[in-house]
Amino acid sequence: MIIKLENVNHVYSPNTPFEKKALDDVSLCINDGDFVGLIGHTGSGKSTLVQHLNGLLKPTSGKIIVDGRDITSKDTDLKEIRQKVGLVFQYPEHQLFEETIYKDIAFGPKNLGLKEEEVEERVKKAMGLVGLDYERFKDRSPFELSGGQKRRVAIAGVLAMKPKVLILDEPTAGLDPRGRDEILGRLELLHKEGITIILVSHSMEDIAKLVNRIVVMHKGKVAMEGETREIFKQAEKLVQLGLGIPQITSFMREYRKRGNQVKDIVLTVEEAKDEIINFLRRRGNA
C-alpha cells in the first residue's frame, strides 16, 4: 500500500458564511502499482482529494499515510513527500516558463541540489518516458510545441523528480484527438514502467481503457469503489450519481437487450469487436 486515507475531512472557509465541506469522512487505500481512475461530477471533491495526497491541502481532520509516513504530522518533510507523489494539474503547460525544454524539465531536480550529471540523466530519462527525443527537443523552446507536446514536457518535469505516484487531473483536457491519444498512450507505458497512477477524468472511455480500479466521488464522499468492470456493471447507480458508462458499453447492453447473446460488460471497441465476431460465428454454426 502506497497511500492510505483514514476518515479524512476537509472544510473550506470554516466558521464563515462561505463554509463548505469538500471531503466527508473519506477512507481509501491506493496500492503500489495501481492505476486508479477517480471520477465524479463537478464539485464532487475529486480535485480537493488529490491535493491532499501530496500535502498541498491539509485535512481538517483525519490521517493520510504516504509510503509509511503520516503526512498530517507536523514534523513530516512535505518536500520529500512531493518528490514521491507528483501532481500534474489540468493544463500543466501553462506552468512552463523556461527558455528551453531542458531547463524546464531540469528545474525541479536542480532545486533538489543534485549534481549536473544527475540532473541531465533525469531529464533524459523523463523525456524518454514521455516520448520526446532528447537531442531533437532539449534546446527547443517549449512554446514552439504542439499542445500535446507541451503537456508531455510538463509531465516530464514531474517525472524528473522520480515520483512513486503520479496524479493527473484531466490530462487530455483541451487536446485534439492526436494529442489526446499521445498522452493516453504515454500513461499506459508509464504504468508499465512501475509508476502508480491516479487519473482524474470525465471521460468514461479513457477510464475504461486504462485503469484497473475506479473510485467514484459524490458530495465529498466515496460513493463507489472497485474493479473497473465491476463499477461499470452498475450503470444505473452511476447514472443516479450524474455519471455514465462508456458509449461502447452502453451499445453492447442495448445489443444484448435485443436478444443477441453477447457479454454486455465490454469496456473497449476492441473487446466489442471480438465479442460480436464470436457471437456471429456461433450463430452461423448453430
What does this structure look like?
The protein is an alpha/beta fold and 286 residues long. The chain folds into 2 domains: 3-245, P-loop containing nucleotide triphosphate hydrolases (Rossmann fold); 246-286. 42% of the residues lie in helices and 21% in strands. The chain contains 12 helices and 10 strands. The protein has helices spanning 46-52, 78-84, 101-111, 116-129, 134-137, 147-159, 177-192, 204-210, 228-233, 235-240, 247-257, 269-285; strands at residues 3-12, 20-30, 35-39, 61-66, 69-70, 85-88, 165-169, 196-200, 213-218, 221-227. The strands form 2 sheets. A 6-stranded mixed β-sheet has the order 6-7-8-3-9-10, with helices on both faces. A 4-stranded antiparallel β-sheet has the order 2-1-4-5, with helices on one face. A hairpin with a 2-residue loop joins strand 9 (213-218) and strand 10 (221-227). Helix 3 (101-111) crosses helix 4 and helix 3 runs parallel beside helix 6. The longest helix has 17 residues, at 269-285. It starts with a strand and ends with a helix.
Helices and strands, in N-to-C order?
EEEHEEHEHHHHEHEHEEHHHH
CATH class of the largest domain: Alpha Beta
First CA to last CA: what distance?
A: 49 Å
Strand element count:
10
Mean pLDDT: 94
Helix fraction by DSSP (H/I, runs of at least 4): 40-55%
Strand order of the largest sheet: 6-7-8-3-9-10
- Rg to the nearest angstrom? 21 Å
Computed structural class: alpha/beta
Tell me the CATH topology of the largest domain.
Rossmann fold
What is the CATH superfamily of the largest domain? P-loop containing nucleotide triphosphate hydrolases
| CATH arch. level architecture of the largest domain | 3-Layer(aba) Sandwich
Tell me the major beta sheet.
6 strands, mixed
Give unreliable regions as ranges. Answer: none
- Total of DSSP H or I helical runs spanning 4+ residues: 12
Instruction: Give the CA-based shape.
Output: globular
Estimated share of beta-strand residues: 15-25%
